[in-house]
Amino acid sequence: MPAEARNGGNILVSALRLNGIDRIFGVPGESALPIFDALYGDNNPIQFVVCRHEATASHMAEADGKMSGRPGICIVSRGPGAAHAMIGLHTAYQDSTPMILIIGQVPRAHRGREAFQELNYTRVFADMTKWVGEIESADLISEYVSRAFHIATQGRPGPVVLSIPEDVLSEMSGVSDAVPAIAAETAPMPAQMLQVRSLLQAAKRPLAIVGNLGWTAEAADRFKEFVARSDIPVIAGFRSQDILDNRSDQYIGDLSLGGSAALRERVKNADLLLVIGDRLGDVTTKSYTLLDAPVPKQTLIHVFPGAEELGRVYTPTLAIQSKSSHFADALADIEPLDSSAWRQWREECRAAFVNYQSNPPKAAGFDLSQVIRFLAERLPDDAIVTNGAGNYSIWLHRFYRYRKLGTQIAPKSGVMGYGLPAAIAAKLRHPGRDVVCLAGDGCFTMASPEFATAVQRNLPIVVIIVNNGMYGSIRMHQEIHFPGRPSGTMLLNADFALLAQSYGAHGEAIERDEDFPAAFERAVKARKPAIIELRVNANQLTPDRVL
Asked: In what order do the strands lie in the sheet with 206-210?
């Protein structure tokens, strides 16, 4: 072999490094040993974060992809490891997050014999990825990695799987590295922007709906300037509340789980919807009821980077295939609009939002709204707040005010166990920023082993656990459909404060909302991973719903 020959593991790691990867999450396995050997040493430019479970490792990678805009990288072993990591792929797919899952496969000669831990990944992951590739030779690794990065980042971003047989990782090759992948990006045409302006100007009740796909901080600032100048009311799509500063007069609420019935009516009564970076999925559209399918009664301008989503459910008046940031750039350059026709409409929308957020119903016992409102006042503008799934997140959606892009890290897939791994990924990516995780007791328990990862990495995150002793959202639906017949939703939990203390971390539990501010200050002052357990009233299912 030529002197410059390398094994497949080294070729792979070199390709990842050249594509800007500085961190990999995963659980080691014997089928990928050459990869871990190539990552050996404290001076390696790529940091490997060893996790306790492949599901949470894949969610760390997905969250990292959300924040960086580059594919989050996860490495797992074959069979069970890959199956565990499937949940992160599903989240990346539904959330349009660039991600690459790397799997050590059985040796080439063993495939098709149901070898130990063998799976056919092309079949298994076909419906939740943009592409699944199995690399047949070390000579092809650079090419396949380049292809994976292009596919994961272009159009509608999403997850890609690379399966590499263990003998390919050990195989020697003199193949050269490929140049770094550069994603081809879409932007609106000048004629389309003229039409956008014409349609907006003709409206009487316009609304903008923004999703958190494809934005940059600069583009978010330009969008803020445009909607302020044009006085256009803006609604955040599902878990996309950090695009526009919620303190802006033009911000009028979000279309997340729960939410305001009055806001939903305003979407129905709007005569124009400018939708940027949102797929218009079932949560944002409230089970596809806010717009008529396939032809909405509202004038619909739909801006999205993937052509396959334009017209998929709703036929737009104007479809624009564009990255959100490039569309925001073009918006900033259009001639000023006369907003007099909708100024009162916008003012009414904003007043309704302020009233909805400022006047919570009286809580039964522990008032979680006070906790969220304290966090909104206490945390700096760039603080990152993560969460998973559960009724507790409805308080966060309603009462927290996001001020800057990249501060809301949450799954559109509605997966439980996401908040803690996402918080770990966020603190690693942004060590100088405050990171707070909000989780339910069931949500936290699904990911609780990763608290050890936070301790091992000495990451001073604050995990707030809303403990009501049950799967609250399912209990709520049971009460709606089968009142008075709870089944399979009650939970017996550990003492979460003692759990944190057993790791040498900070942990405490409180039973009154007025005790939270002092508890939070103690957690921050500890300068190490912390858990604050909120022992809330189980009867208070949501801000508006009590058993």
From this structure: 251-254, 234-236, 206-210, 272-276, 299-304, 318-321
Instruction: Give the confidence band of 1 by pLDDT, cuts at 50, 70, 90.
Output: very low
| Upper half-sphere CA count for residue 395 (Cβ side, 13 Å) | 29
Q: How is residue 400 written in tokens?
A: 């927290």
Query: 366 - beta bridge partners?
Result: none
Give the pLDDT confidence of 84-123 residue by residue, as tens digits.
999 999 999 999 999 999 999 988 888 888 888 878 999 9
Let me know: does 534 contact 367? Beta carbons within 8 Å: no
Helix, strand, coil % over all residues of the chain, rounded to 5: 40, 20, 40
DSSP β-bridge partners for residue 162: 102, 133
pLDDT tens column, 12-60 = 999 999 999 999 999 999 889 999 999 998 889 999 999 999 999 999 9
Rounded to whole angstroms, how far apart are CA atoms 84 and 93?
16
pLDDT in tens, 320-357: 999 999 999 999 999 999 999 999 999 999 999 999 98
Q: Which of 339, 303, 325 is nearest to 227 (CA)?
A: 339
The pLDDT of residue 162 is above 60: yes
User: In whole angstroms, what is the distance from residue 73 CA to residue 57 CA?
Assistant: 9
Q: Which of 352, 354, 436 is nearest to 399 (CA)?
A: 354
Rounded Cα distance, 124 and 322, in Å: 31
At residue 477, what are phi and psi to the nearest 5 degrees? Answer: -65, -35
C-alpha 535/C-alpha 441 separation (Å) is 10
The answer to pTM > 0.85 is yes
Give the SS3 label for residue 92: helix
**Domains, the chain, ranges and CATH?**
6-173 (3.40.50.970), 190-355 (3.40.50.1220), 360-546 (3.40.50.970)
3-state secondary structure of 265: helix
Alpha carbon 526 to its chain centroid, in Å, reads: 28
Q: What size, in residues, is the chain? A: 547
Dist. CA 505–CA 522, nearest whole Å: 12
What's the gap between Cα 309 and its chain centre?
Answer: 19
| Residue type (1 letter), 504 | G
Instruction: Report, in angstroms and rounded to the nearest whole number, the Rg of the chain calculated over CA atoms.
Output: 24
Question: Tokens 């003998």 label which residue?
Answer: 167
